[in-house]
Amino acid sequence: MAKEATHGGRSASPSHLNRIMPLSSLQLGQSTPLPASPDEAVLDRVPNPHADTDYLARFTAPEFTSICPVTGQPDFATLVIDYVPGPWLVESKSLKLYLGSFRNHGAFHEDCTVAIGKRLAALLEPRWLRIGGYWYPRGGIPIDVFWQTGAPPADLWLPDQGVAPYRGRG
Fold this sequence. Notes:
Layout lengths: L3 E5 L5 H4 L2 E3 L20 E5 L9 E11 L6 E11 L3 E3 L1 H9 L8 H16 L3 E8 L8 E5 L22
Antiparallel strand pairs: 1-2, 1-3, 3-6, 4-5, 5-7, 7-8
């Protein structure tokens, strides 16, 4: 039996996110340009070989960037995405391209952080997911944004996200 993966695309509708595709259709191993926007980015998912086990998978993006929708100035953050996979894993190259697609996207910190969490939750159907957006100060105020799908599973080893709170020089 051939291995299959699903390919999540531009729409967040469940029918679009659940198309079954052969593994050869993944972006992994192919030359793939950076998408122009998050709406154009494709997220790939692959079957979880340990779907019967609760474990934590973590992605850290220490150089996440987006654009302020008002000033057009760049915003910078460290994103930490933790999830307990259900039937699916996110394919890491597609996640990298999706996150990179925010580079020229105008949105507030809260919108970027929560939209990423919601899109991943819709695609992956995880047992649990959280995202922490640790944004660098703009106008002298750091903004940290946190979103999760609910309570984590009992007895899950859940390490701290490892991003120190912002400390000014005062």
